[in-house]
Fold each of these.
Amino acid sequence: MPLPREPKPPFVFDARFAWPGITRDRAVAEALDVPAEELPGRGPGVILGAHLIFPRRSVVSLGVGGELLLMRAKNTIEPDVPTVPTPGPAVPAGPTLTNRWTHMSPQVSLNFGSGAGFSYATGGLGWSRLTMERDDDPQEPGGRVRTLNYGGGAKWFAKDHLGFTLDLRFYSISAQEAAPGRVATSAVRVVVFSGGISFR
């Protein structure tokens, strides 16, 4: 006689870590008066999520919840050093560039499997805030722009309340218009692979 299927947990909380990268935008580089290749690429990010799953005993279960993503990337422009050393004071480093990305979205998911481990497909429509600036010329905080995200992942629970999770997500961030004290940003698509821990 087969063992009964372990029901999925009613609530799941995630803390995942990622290293996302925003495409270097030449229009942003021109507005900040820096080379495009000096714009920050990838940077550390954290993703926090909370999900409610029902019905828990079904092979395929509907889930609803939300997620918050925080990411910051920095790069300091190095000065041009002459091949032959010359006397005089050291050439100072260039400005430090910072790229901040905040994303918040409600989520809907389909969850496949049991409480011991299950995969999921998920999507949501929320908003992002992108701020790209020089440390010597701070920008005004960016406005919120619509962002669609979709993807999937899996969770495994080796212990009663603690598990491991992997997630692959695609984010389509809408363009942001220029405003006083803030540069415009183009529409961009970001791929984020993250991993971390889950609590149930």
Amino acid sequence: MDNSNIQEQINDINRKLDIVLDEIVAQRETRKSIEDLTADLTIIGQDMFASTVAELDNAGVEVDGEAVKMLILKLIRNVDTLTELFEMLESGKDLLSDLTPIIQQVGLDGMHLMHDIEKKGYFNFAQQSIKIMDNIVTHFSVEDLQSLADNIVTIMETLKNLTQPEMLKTINNTLMVYKSIQVNNIEEYSLFKALREMNSKEMKKGIGFMITFLKNISKATTNNQN
């Protein structure tokens, strides 16, 4: 082996030794920093403990050392339970993060829905409905409501009959005829002219309808009384 190869190996060994020495120095500095930090934290902890003891003593609070020791032991024994609790909290946090966009979207949809309802006038309608109920309550007595409850079946039957297509058509025709009549400009009829009009086909049919209607009303009233 020539001198050049030997010198190269020596240089390589020196470089490796320098790296090892640097690592040893770095570890020594790190250890020293940790020792200094530990010493500082120990001093701080002692000061905090002394301050806490002084504060508790001034406040008249007695600390049971045995109870504190038991608490620490319980915490150590239940470290797995505490870990599970923290994991549950983390899972809850993740779930809340996942639900936040959904909750926000539901809130926006709710705001849009409320805006549409207000735009369509539902709130005003509800407000006026409350006024209607208030007027009903102030206008009618409890006895009136009791009477309404007693006769609600008859009222509903009447409404049912009124809402039949034939009845609605008849009522509508009656209203249309009344609307077409000029009430302020009705022609005057003398007794002779009225008698002559009564001989017309329309009047005879109308009189027949009225007589038939009154007879049926009288018959129904008699049946109800019996």
